[in-house]
Amino acid sequence: MNETARKSFSYDTHKILHVSMIAIVMIGSIVGNSIICFLLVRFKTLRTVPNILIVNLAFIDILNAVTNMPLMIMWYIYQVPYLKGREISWFIVTWYVLFMYLTVFNLTVLTMDRFGAIVHGIHYHSWKTINKAKAAVFFVWISSAAYTYGMFTLGLDIDLGDAPVLLYRIHYLKKFGRHFIIPGYVVPFTIMVVMGVTIWRTVHNHSRRISAYSSTGKQTKNDVKTAKTIGLTVVAFFCMGVLPMLLHNISKVHGSWPHFLAFFLNHLNSMANPIIYSLKTPRFRKAFILFLKEPLGKSQPLMASKNRMDLNSTTRNLSSKVDMFHTQISSV
Question: Which ranges does the record mark as transmembrane (predicted)?
Fold first, then answer.
């Protein structure tokens, strides 16, 4: 009897820890990604093509935190009785997979944007517009939904009665899910890796040829910084997307720590993205500080670099000296 009580206590403790971890990630994802969205609405200077794609990713993470994370607590951890059966299981699993592909496709488009900005330079900058960025966001949502729900039409005939969501998910994966991983995951990541290598080679070859003080050099430097930030975002998703697949193959015991971490790491990525932006993007940091000071104001963050500020200071000093010289000439 004591052994049974100890097992029950241990099981309840694991549930509390699992729920606490999901709750922390859920709150962090909602708060962090909401700040990214608010900053784009508040500051016009942040409304660039890559930032629109970044905000779309933030919006995806918010929806994922609001819907999939509470659902995971209910169907995976506590296995509530009413979350079972054919229709409910199909909806929960497809909704979870949809956000996986939304993230993958959005990161692919972000990488393509940096590829165009750095490899093709001025030709891409003269071609890209805000409207085209919005069209890219629309394409991400349409293509992700078409891919996900097109895939899951193959699971409409699976009927396990009142079986829980987890069993339906296992059957979906065995019947058709594995066949869609390569085109849905491997192909986009291969594209991102190839483009990333090309970006690195381009930067390496041209870094010595372009002056850092020229307008082209400054634009290239900004593009490289943005590419590094997006690169970290891609690496974070890769680590938190591939590792869970390995954990699923290692551990098949529902409720065990490796099995739980396979789901948890996917959700953790939603909270990691705002942290990457805040650490690697000075523009977001400055905008956030100004947002705290003037949440409803109209001022924009000063994004001038140190070199630009020094140049402006030197120009002002020269102008003042010229004015003094003209004054002295006039007095003579």
Answer: 16-41, 53-78, 90-112, 133-156, 176-200, 229-247, 259-279
pLDDT tens across 179-201, in order? 888 788 888 888 988 898 888 88
Residue 154 token pair: 């193959």
| DSSP assigned state of 162 | T
- Global pTM reads 0.82
* Ranges of each domain in the chain: 3-304
Q: Which two tokens stand for residue 222?
A: 């900004």
* CA 276 distance to own-chain centroid: 9
Q: Which CATH number fits domain 3-304: 1.20.1070.10, 3.40.50.150, 1.10.10.200, 1.10.357.10?
A: 1.20.1070.10
The position carrying tokens 């299981």 is: 89
Dihedral angle at the C-alpha atoms of 86, 87, 89, 91, nearest 10 degrees? 150
7-11 CB contacts, 8 Å cutoff, 24+ apart: 11/255
Residues contacting residue 224 through CB under 8 Å, at least 6 positions apart: 118, 203
Q: Could you tell me how far CA 39 lies from the centroid of its own chain?
A: 16
With tokens 């959700």, the residue in question is 267
Tell me the C-alpha distance between 86 and 325, whole Å: 86
